[in-house]
Amino acid sequence: MLRVPVLIVLAVTFSLTSAAPAFDVVLGPESPLTSPSVAPAPYGRQLSGIASNGRDFLAIWLDRRSAISSLPLYSAPAAAYLSRLDVAGRPLIPFGSRLRDGVTNPAIVRTSAGYTLLWSENGETFLMLLDDDGVAASAPKRIADGYLVAAASNGRTIFIIHGPLSQPQFASVLGTDGTALSRTPLDAGDRYPQWMQPMVTADGRYAFVTQRWKCPGNVGCTVTATLTTVTESGAVAARELAPLTQWTQSAAAIGNGRILLAWMSDSGSPARRLAFRIFDPDGNPLTAETTIASTNDVQSASGSYAPTVGWDGQEFLVAWQWPLVEGRTGEIRAMRVTGDGIMIDGAPMILSSTQGNPPRFASNGSSHLVAWDSFVYQSSGIAVRSVASFDTLNYAATSTMPMSAALQTQVQLASLGSKTLAVWREGDSNPSIVGTLSDSVPIVVSAAGTLDQQVPAVGASNGQYLVVWREQAIAPSPPQTFRILGRRISPDGHVLDSDPIVIAQDPVPYFVPGVDTLAVGSNGTDFFVIWPSDGDLLRGVRVSAAGAVLDTAPIAVSAPPNGTPGSPRVVWNGQHYVVAWIADPSCKICLSPLPPVSQVFVARVTSGGQLADSQKIWLGGYGPNVALAHGNNGFLLAWAAVDSGGIQNCVHTVALRDDGVPNGPIHDMTCAASGWPFLFPDLDAAWDGASFVIAWTRIMGSSTKANAMRVSAAGAPLDGAPFDLSAGDTASFQAALASSPDGVLVAYDRIALEPQYGGVARIFARSLSRLNLLPRRRATH
Question: Which of 178, 367, 615, 649 has the most crowded CB, counting CB atoms within 10 A?
Answer without folding.
Answer: 649
